[in-house]
Target: Heavy-metal resistance
Amino acid sequence: MHRASGFNGLLCASFFLISSISLLGQDCTLGLGGKDSEIIRQVFQLNAEQTQKMRAWEAELSASNESLEREAMALLDEHPQNTLDELEALGNKYGKIRDAMVANAKSYDQLLLGTFNQKQYALYLQLCREAVRNPLPPSVEVDPGKPKETPKDSVAPNRG
Model:
């Protein structure tokens, strides 16, 4: 009984995690690379291989975003900010960097989704429906760090 209530707590936490990520709009993201990776591991009951891949992808995402964060900081330090036009240009450039970071995060979430079995993916879809978010299509890794999206007609990963 205690174990079931612990799992329900994790399920609620994951629902909150997925539903509270407003930065990524209406997409149902996992938040890979964020502070809640352990919740992802527990809620979806990732096996050792999935956990190893998740940690490797988190490191890749962190390195990629670190470069973008440096670019953003340099932009804020160096870009003129004296006029409304300069501020608008700064905002547009900063928005492109932010969008690149969001795209990176989503692509790594999709890679992890590509490792899910049918039961894990069904749980993901259920949580997305409850959070009123659009599920991301799973991806497969062709080259390290280069996700390739699965066909659009794919309902769930092909893993058993």
